[in-house]
Protein backbone atom coordinates (compact mmCIF):
# COMPACT_ATOMS: atom_id res chain seq x y z
CA UNK A 1 0.00 0.00 0.00
CA UNK A 2 3.01 2.28 0.41
CA UNK A 3 2.81 5.10 -2.10
CA UNK A 4 -0.76 4.51 -3.24
CA UNK A 5 -2.22 7.14 -0.92
CA UNK A 6 0.01 9.75 -2.55
CA UNK A 7 -1.06 8.62 -6.02
CA UNK A 8 -4.72 8.73 -5.01
CA UNK A 9 -4.31 12.27 -3.65
CA UNK A 10 -2.75 13.38 -6.93
CA UNK A 11 -5.58 11.73 -8.89
CA UNK A 12 -8.22 13.51 -6.81
CA UNK A 13 -6.72 16.84 -7.83
CA UNK A 14 -6.36 16.11 -11.54
CA UNK A 15 -7.27 18.87 -13.95
CA UNK A 16 -8.71 17.54 -17.21
CA UNK A 17 -6.59 20.04 -19.11
CA UNK A 18 -3.31 19.31 -17.30
CA UNK A 19 -1.88 16.65 -19.58
CA UNK A 20 1.60 16.89 -18.06
CA UNK A 21 0.37 15.96 -14.58
CA UNK A 22 -1.86 13.25 -16.00
CA UNK A 23 1.02 11.72 -17.95
CA UNK A 24 3.29 11.87 -14.91
CA UNK A 25 0.64 10.25 -12.71
CA UNK A 26 0.10 7.48 -15.24
CA UNK A 27 3.82 6.73 -15.42
CA UNK A 28 4.07 6.66 -11.62
CA UNK A 29 1.06 4.34 -11.35
CA UNK A 30 2.35 1.89 -13.94
CA UNK A 31 5.76 1.83 -12.27
CA UNK A 32 4.13 1.21 -8.89
CA UNK A 33 2.04 -1.62 -10.32
CA UNK A 34 5.17 -3.23 -11.77
CA UNK A 35 6.82 -3.04 -8.34
CA UNK A 36 3.79 -4.62 -6.68
CA UNK A 37 3.68 -7.48 -9.17
CA UNK A 38 7.41 -8.08 -8.78
CA UNK A 39 7.07 -8.05 -4.98
CA UNK A 40 4.25 -10.58 -5.12
CA UNK A 41 6.15 -12.85 -7.50
CA UNK A 42 9.19 -12.82 -5.23
CA UNK A 43 7.30 -13.21 -1.95
CA UNK A 44 4.41 -15.47 -2.98
CA UNK A 45 6.03 -18.72 -1.82
CA UNK A 46 7.15 -17.24 1.50
CA UNK A 47 3.64 -15.91 2.10
CA UNK A 48 2.15 -19.38 1.71
CA UNK A 49 1.57 -19.64 -2.02
CA UNK A 50 -1.22 -18.55 -4.32
CA UNK A 51 -4.85 -19.38 -3.50
CA UNK A 52 -6.58 -22.33 -5.11
CA UNK A 53 -10.16 -22.50 -6.32
CA UNK A 54 -12.56 -24.59 -4.26
CA UNK A 55 -14.28 -27.49 -5.97
CA UNK A 56 -17.81 -26.90 -7.28
CA UNK A 57 -20.23 -27.55 -4.44
CA UNK A 58 -17.48 -27.68 -1.82
CA UNK A 59 -18.86 -26.59 1.55
CA UNK A 60 -16.90 -23.97 3.48
CA UNK A 61 -19.32 -23.85 6.44
CA UNK A 62 -19.95 -20.18 5.87
CA UNK A 63 -23.12 -18.17 6.35
CA UNK A 64 -22.49 -16.17 3.21
CA UNK A 65 -24.78 -16.65 0.26
CA UNK A 66 -23.37 -18.70 -2.62
CA UNK A 67 -22.06 -16.32 -5.26
CA UNK A 68 -20.27 -18.41 -7.89
CA UNK A 69 -22.43 -16.78 -10.55
CA UNK A 70 -21.19 -13.34 -9.52
CA UNK A 71 -17.51 -13.93 -8.81
CA UNK A 72 -16.55 -17.48 -9.72
CA UNK A 73 -15.66 -20.30 -7.33
CA UNK A 74 -14.45 -19.25 -3.87
CA UNK A 75 -10.76 -19.35 -3.07
CA UNK A 76 -9.06 -21.51 -0.47
CA UNK A 77 -5.84 -20.39 1.24
CA UNK A 78 -2.97 -22.02 3.10
CA UNK A 79 -3.64 -19.93 6.22
CA UNK A 80 -5.57 -16.93 7.51
CA UNK A 81 -2.47 -14.77 7.20
CA UNK A 82 -2.04 -15.89 3.59
CA UNK A 83 -5.64 -14.93 2.85
CA UNK A 84 -5.22 -11.53 4.49
CA UNK A 85 -2.08 -10.81 2.48
CA UNK A 86 -3.99 -11.54 -0.71
CA UNK A 87 -6.97 -9.40 0.28
CA UNK A 88 -4.66 -6.49 1.04
CA UNK A 89 -2.77 -7.03 -2.23
CA UNK A 90 -5.98 -7.14 -4.28
CA UNK A 91 -7.37 -4.09 -2.49
CA UNK A 92 -4.23 -2.14 -3.34
CA UNK A 93 -4.42 -3.24 -6.98
CA UNK A 94 -8.10 -2.32 -7.15
CA UNK A 95 -7.32 1.19 -5.93
CA UNK A 96 -4.36 1.49 -8.28
CA UNK A 97 -6.30 0.33 -11.33
CA UNK A 98 -8.97 2.92 -10.58
CA UNK A 99 -6.30 5.62 -10.55
CA UNK A 100 -4.75 4.28 -13.76
CA UNK A 101 -8.15 4.40 -15.43
CA UNK A 102 -8.59 8.02 -14.42
CA UNK A 103 -5.10 8.95 -15.57
CA UNK A 104 -5.70 7.26 -18.92
CA UNK A 105 -9.15 8.71 -19.45
CA UNK A 106 -7.81 11.35 -21.84
CA UNK A 107 -8.10 9.84 -25.36
CA UNK A 108 -4.70 11.23 -26.36
CA UNK A 109 -3.05 9.07 -23.71
CA UNK A 110 -5.06 5.89 -24.08
CA UNK A 111 -8.17 5.19 -26.17
CA UNK A 112 -8.69 1.90 -24.26
CA UNK A 113 -8.67 3.33 -20.73
CA UNK A 114 -11.94 1.57 -19.91
CA UNK A 115 -10.23 -1.82 -19.98
CA UNK A 116 -7.69 -0.73 -17.36
CA UNK A 117 -10.44 0.92 -15.33
CA UNK A 118 -12.49 -2.28 -15.27
CA UNK A 119 -9.60 -4.14 -13.65
CA UNK A 120 -10.53 -2.27 -10.48
CA UNK A 121 -13.74 -4.30 -10.41
CA UNK A 122 -11.88 -7.51 -11.25
CA UNK A 123 -9.72 -7.17 -8.13
CA UNK A 124 -12.79 -6.37 -6.04
CA UNK A 125 -14.28 -9.63 -7.32
CA UNK A 126 -11.08 -11.45 -6.33
CA UNK A 127 -11.51 -10.19 -2.77
CA UNK A 128 -15.09 -11.42 -2.74
CA UNK A 129 -13.88 -14.88 -3.77
CA UNK A 130 -11.75 -14.85 -0.61
CA UNK A 131 -14.58 -13.92 1.76
CA UNK A 132 -16.36 -17.32 2.02
CA UNK A 133 -13.12 -18.94 3.19
CA UNK A 134 -12.30 -16.14 5.62
CA UNK A 135 -15.80 -16.07 7.10
CA UNK A 136 -16.04 -19.79 7.85
CA UNK A 137 -17.73 -20.40 11.18
CA UNK A 138 -14.66 -22.23 12.54
CA UNK A 139 -12.61 -19.02 12.33
CA UNK A 140 -15.12 -16.89 14.26
CA UNK A 141 -13.92 -13.26 14.24
CA UNK A 142 -10.32 -14.15 13.34
CA UNK A 143 -11.15 -14.63 9.68
CA UNK A 144 -12.69 -11.20 9.31
CA UNK A 145 -10.05 -9.41 11.38
CA UNK A 146 -7.77 -7.35 9.20
CA UNK A 147 -9.89 -7.70 6.04
CA UNK A 148 -12.22 -4.74 6.56
CA UNK A 149 -9.99 -2.48 4.50
CA UNK A 150 -10.53 -4.82 1.57
CA UNK A 151 -14.28 -4.96 2.11
CA UNK A 152 -14.37 -1.17 2.22
CA UNK A 153 -12.68 -1.03 -1.19
CA UNK A 154 -15.16 -3.60 -2.50
CA UNK A 155 -18.05 -1.35 -1.47
CA UNK A 156 -16.46 1.69 -3.10
CA UNK A 157 -15.94 -0.15 -6.40
CA UNK A 158 -19.44 -1.62 -6.62
CA UNK A 159 -20.92 1.78 -5.80
CA UNK A 160 -18.90 3.40 -8.56
CA UNK A 161 -19.72 0.69 -11.10
CA UNK A 162 -23.38 0.54 -10.00
CA UNK A 163 -23.22 -3.25 -9.54
CA UNK A 164 -26.28 -3.85 -7.38
CA UNK A 165 -26.09 -7.65 -7.02
CA UNK A 166 -22.41 -7.58 -6.11
CA UNK A 167 -22.99 -4.62 -3.82
CA UNK A 168 -25.74 -6.42 -1.91
CA UNK A 169 -23.57 -9.49 -1.50
CA UNK A 170 -20.77 -7.35 -0.08
CA UNK A 171 -23.27 -5.70 2.27
CA UNK A 172 -24.30 -9.14 3.48
CA UNK A 173 -20.62 -9.98 4.14
CA UNK A 174 -20.34 -6.83 6.25
CA UNK A 175 -23.37 -7.92 8.27
CA UNK A 176 -21.73 -11.29 8.92
CA UNK A 177 -18.61 -9.51 10.15
CA UNK A 178 -20.77 -7.33 12.35
CA UNK A 179 -22.43 -10.38 13.87
CA UNK A 180 -18.96 -11.71 14.62
CA UNK A 181 -18.27 -8.65 16.75
CA UNK A 182 -17.10 -5.89 14.42
CA UNK A 183 -18.97 -2.64 15.07
CA UNK A 184 -16.91 -1.05 12.31
CA UNK A 185 -18.37 -3.53 9.81
CA UNK A 186 -21.88 -2.40 10.77
CA UNK A 187 -20.85 1.23 10.36
CA UNK A 188 -19.42 0.49 6.91
CA UNK A 189 -22.62 -1.32 5.96
CA UNK A 190 -24.78 1.63 6.98
CA UNK A 191 -22.47 4.13 5.25
CA UNK A 192 -22.54 2.23 1.95
CA UNK A 193 -26.31 1.76 2.15
CA UNK A 194 -26.66 5.51 2.62
CA UNK A 195 -24.30 6.22 -0.30
CA UNK A 196 -26.16 3.84 -2.59
CA UNK A 197 -29.51 5.43 -1.82
CA UNK A 198 -28.01 8.88 -2.27
CA UNK A 199 -26.55 8.00 -5.67
CA UNK A 200 -29.55 6.02 -6.90
CA UNK A 201 -32.48 7.98 -5.56
CA UNK A 202 -33.26 5.74 -2.58
CA UNK A 203 -36.15 3.35 -2.52
CA UNK A 204 -34.20 0.20 -1.64
CA UNK A 205 -34.76 -1.64 1.62
CA UNK A 206 -31.27 -2.83 2.53
CA UNK A 207 -32.43 -4.34 5.79
CA UNK A 208 -34.42 -6.95 3.88
CA UNK A 209 -31.52 -8.09 1.71
CA UNK A 210 -28.51 -7.75 4.01
CA UNK A 211 -29.75 -9.68 7.01
Short description:
The chain has helices at residues 4-12, 19-43, 68-71, 80-103, 113-134, 148-160, 164-179, 183-200, 206-210; strands at 52-53, 75-76.
Describe the protein's architecture and organization:
The protein contains nine helices and two strands, in the order H-H-E-H-E-H-H-H-H-H-H. The radius of gyration is 18 Å and the shape is globular. The protein has a two-stranded antiparallel ribbon with strand order 1-2. Residues 205-211 have low confidence and may be disordered. It has 211 residues and is mostly helical.
Topology overview:
Blueprint: H1 4-12, H2 19-43, E1 52-53, H3 68-71, E2 75-76, H4 80-103, H5 113-134, H6 148-160, H7 164-179, H8 183-200, H9 206-210
Antiparallel strand pairs: 1-2
Helix pairs in contact: 1-2, 1-4, 2-4, 4-5, 4-6, 5-6, 6-7, 6-8, 7-8
Order of helices and strands: HHEHEHHHHHH
Mind telling me the C-alpha Rg?
Answer: 18 Å
Termini separation: 32 Å
What is the total domain count?
1
Strand line-up in the sheet with most strands: 1-2
Q: What's the overall geometry?
A: globular
User: Which runs of at least 5 residues are low in confidence (pLDDT < 50)?
Assistant: 205-211
What is the tally of beta strands? 2
Which band does the percent of strand residues land in?
under 5%
Total DSSP helices? 9
Tell me about the biggest sheet?
A: 2 strands, antiparallel
Overall mean pLDDT? 85
Category by helix and strand content: mainly alpha
Oligomer: single chain
Helical fraction equals 55-70%
List keywords for this structure.
9 helices, 2 strands, globular, disordered C terminus, 64% helix, 211 residues, mainly alpha, 2% strand, two-stranded antiparallel sheet
Amino acid sequence: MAGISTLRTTASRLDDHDEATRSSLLADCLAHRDKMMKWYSQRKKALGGAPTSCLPGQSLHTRLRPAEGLFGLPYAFSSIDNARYHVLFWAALSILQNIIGRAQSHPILCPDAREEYLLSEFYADEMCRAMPWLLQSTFNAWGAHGTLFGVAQIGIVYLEFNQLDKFLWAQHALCMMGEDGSDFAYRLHDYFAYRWKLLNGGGWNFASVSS
